[in-house]
Write a structure and sequence with these properties.
The chain is 69% helix and 0% strand. It is mainly α and 133 residues long. The longest helix has 14 residues.
């Protein structure tokens, strides 16, 4: 499973459970993988954030997805901090790819753009600064 991509401990646990491994064996396997460095939630988090930002996802969405995968909030915050200065440029890139670079003054279109950017996982304050300042 680890040869294709990084996995969080929780993902590996679910996969092993779905294959009917006994719970005590799962714990032993996961502990050995972590101790040997074959599995790392740190590496997984770093890789996941890099992958999602490349696809145009914002920090809110990435944080939620990592929580679903069992990653600790402190670890998420540590890695997302490294991207803090990149969010405005990423938001601009995502916006321009979808809507182009023409400014918009139509309220209905602004709301549609804001909803799209929010769905992509960008924080409301960043969206407001981008669209209304």
């Amino acid at each position: 499973m680890l040869t294709q991509r990084e996995h969080s401990l929780q993902e590996l646990r679910f996969k092993l459970q779905s294959r009917d491994f006994e719970e005590h064996k799962i714990d032993t396997i996961l502990q050995r993988l972590s101790e040997s460095g074959l599995q790392s939630d740190d590496r997984y988090t770093e890789s996941y954030i890099a992958s999602r930002t490349e696809r145009g996802s914002g920090p809110v969405r990435i944080r939620a997805e990592l929580r679903e995968r069992g990653i600790d909030e402190a670890l998420i915050e540590t890695y997302l901090e490294g991207y803090a200065e990149l969010w405005p440029a990423l938001l601009q890139r995502v916006h321009d790819a979808k809507f182009g670079t023409e400014p918009c003054t139509d309220r209905k279109t602004l709301v549609r753009k804001a909803r799209f950017l929010q769905h992509r996982g960008f924080p409301g304050e960043l969206i407001r600064q981008f669209l209304f300042d």
